Amino acid sequence: MSDFDDFSITLPDGYATFARFWPVSKPRGAVLYHHGIQSHCGWYEASARALVDAGFAVLQVDRRGSGRSDTDRGHAESAEQLIGDALAGRDALRQRTGLRAYHVVGVSWGGKLAVAAYVTEPAGVQSLSLVTPGLFPLVGVSKETAQEIGIAMIYEPQRRFPIPLNEPALFTSDPTWQAFFRDDPLTLRACSAAFYLASRRMDKTIAGLSSASAVPIHLFVAGNEQIIDSAKTIDFINGLDWPQVQISTYARAKHSLEFEDVQQDFLRSLTGFVGAVG
After folding, report:
1. pLDDT digits (tens, 9 = 90+) for 35-91
2. Are 207 and 263 a contacting pair, CB within 8 Å?
3. DSSP state, 10?
4. First-last CA distance in the chain
5. What is the C-alpha separation between 218 and 6, in angstroms, rounded?
6. How confident is the model at residue 1 (pLDDT cuts 50, 70, 90)?
7. Among 44, 149, 155, 225, fewest CB within 10 Å belongs to which?
């Protein structure tokens, strides 16, 4: 018997995707958890379970077109749609827990979505935990592919283009987890032209974080990072000049902290931060 509940969540346009709710009998708080561009709920069981053990109910949603959702794989129509989906996840979390306030955890591209959703609708958010967030990517499509995506947006917005992150060594140095990433049938391998444009347009929303109301924020960065620009990310978060900013750096780790040998230190830091906020 699993310690989470699998269920379907209906997004604002009627799209049905999958979610996992990790219940706590008397939760001290609630957490909305956003996964990365290729991943899904199943990648982050260790951190979800650690949050549950710390007393927090957790909701993870497979982003539309990812994970177990096999309709319109890798597709989203706009940045507004993706942000609306994130807020639908918030509503589902509130319904399941009865709590209005909640914490947000965003991993990799999910950190980008977490920030965009917070800028759009900050009410109720108690803290932001951004784990190697995809705010400033180092890896992207080639110029030629970018041109093809631009043309496809006019004629074939649902045309798929490979995600340039299919080398597991970018994520972790652990051979077992590398094999998992390589062989996982639910890993998303391509996104539509419309999704790529939506992600790009989300950057403008993210820039608004500098004028958003401040909440406690914890940035987790990997010292051996090859997917995002950690220096730019740190500068951006420090530049917010918010009163409660914490930055944790794992010097030898690669992008996916949960799958490196720093996992336990990372989980203690994540749960300690969320728990200290309340």
Report:
1. 999 999 999 999 999 999 999 999 999 999 999 998 999 999 999 999 999 999 999
2. no
3. E
4. 29
5. 28
6. very low
7. 155
